[in-house]
């Protein structure tokens, strides 16, 4: 889905490059689609890296076209580093992280034109990217270790306490 969106976006922004990180079972098909659409100059598929934070920091926007994920770690990582996000609003995940039009955009599932429009807004407006990125970083604190660990510890303590009492 992202490659098809990028086909249209790349015509508006020929100097931008789409970077995709990771491996998957459909890599060969993806490379074939990129070649068929003549996008080799503007789409780069990178192997998995243990330096993904550096990759996020070198980026301007995070785009997610997934159909489903639980709580997407990549989205949490990207927003914690100040990247505004454009994501399809699939059933679980993005709406827990993205506040629409505040730290990114939530796009109705399969609304390719809205995806393109929101990417266009961010790509043409550096001030908007920075503003939303700043909000992304601020809002990501909800998922920081300092915010989450006390909740886990409390949960485990309650489970252990309840178990000792035969509940």
How does the SSE layout of this entry go?
Blueprint: H1 2-12, E1 18-21, H2 27-36, E2 43-46, H3 52-57, E3 62-64, H4 73-80, E4 85-88, H5 94-97, E5 104-107, H6 112-124, H7 126-139, H8 145-164
Parallel strand pairs: 1-2, 3-4, 4-5
Word description of this protein:
The chain has 167 residues and is mainly alpha-helical. The chain is 51% helix and 11% strand. It is built from 8 helices and 5 strands. It has helices at residues 2-12, 27-36, 52-57, 73-80, 94-97, 112-124, 126-139, 145-164; strands at residues 18-21, 43-46, 62-64, 85-88, 104-107. A 3-stranded parallel sheet has the order 3-4-5, sandwiched between helices. The protein is globular and about 60 Å long.
Alpha-beta content class = mainly alpha
Distance between the termini: 48 Å
Strand coverage percent: 5-15%
Spatial order of strands in the largest sheet: 3-4-5
Fraction of helical residues: 40-55%
Q: Residue ranges: pLDDT <50 for 5 or more in a row? A: none
Please state the average pLDDT score.
Answer: 90
Order of helices and strands: HEHEHEHEHEHHH
By DSSP (H or I, 4+ residues per run), the number of helices equals: 8
Find the count of extended strands (DSSP E, 2+ residues): 5
Main beta sheet, described? 3 strands, parallel
As a whole number of angstroms, the C-alpha radius of gyration is: 18 Å
